[in-house]
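Late entry, biotin complex.
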Amino acid sequence: MSVDDNFGEDEISSFLRTRWLGTGGRLLFFREIGSTNDEAVRQAGKGAEEGLVVIADLQNSGKGRRGRVWKGEAGLNTAMSYLLRPDFDPDLASAITLIMALSCRKAIRNVTGLETLIKWPNDIVSKGKKLVGILTEMSPENGRIGYVVVGTGININQSVFPEEISETASSLFLETGEKVSRSGITAECANCFEEYYELFKSTGSLKDMQDEYNAVCVNNGRRVKVLDPKKSFEGEALGINERGSLLVRTDDGRVREVYAGEVSVRGVYGYT
Ligand code: BTN
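Prediction complete; structure with ligand written out below:
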């Protein structure tokens, strides 16, 4: 029997150490679904509570950032979405993406020993190739957050990628040379997320995680190109602040705060 034959609700639950995330009937597992984010949004509309976790073996319309498609293959990867109902300012919602990235990074290290890096705000990379993608969707309600859905796709045991991403995508199997338990990784992400998220909620900022994030942020100290919709600019990435914005020093010495958006890093995914 292979390490990964029993990917499903029971096995995932057996690895969970969370108090509220994905426990107490808050875990929905699908063999195949359109998008776990869409399902979590649908459940939110029906009044589902914070802590619902939607997991799928295969998504047939997985969504990536900026309207891109997130492709998966049955039996090899994991797709999961968390439903959260945080009671804080909508400006802080983007920090949840960074918390998810930290959680996945830690989960990967705990389960496989692999040390990965984070490309701000939320890609997890190994040797310049992407292993994890995160898509956060927020629904505002009367100036507050109605709910947040944070969705994560992890390339786990896939060994061949479509040609258009073969130069930029990798998997845990390709990086470690070993088949990895999808249930183990999926549950450990939730275990780590619950801890970081509670820390974040208790302080209302990323201050307790900022150093940890900056230590593994591939952008830091490197030349970056910020693809600002108004006007792109270049500079040196200095690290994130307490809100999760990336600080970039431009050539005229000014330090600019980048809240969101696309940032290319020289040498990562082929930006030169
Ligand atoms: C990216 O473009 O890097 C983000 C990819 C996010 C993919 C995940 S898979 C689980 C969740 N459901 C979706 O439809 N998308 C996210």
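The radius of gyration is 18 Å. Will revisit in the morning.
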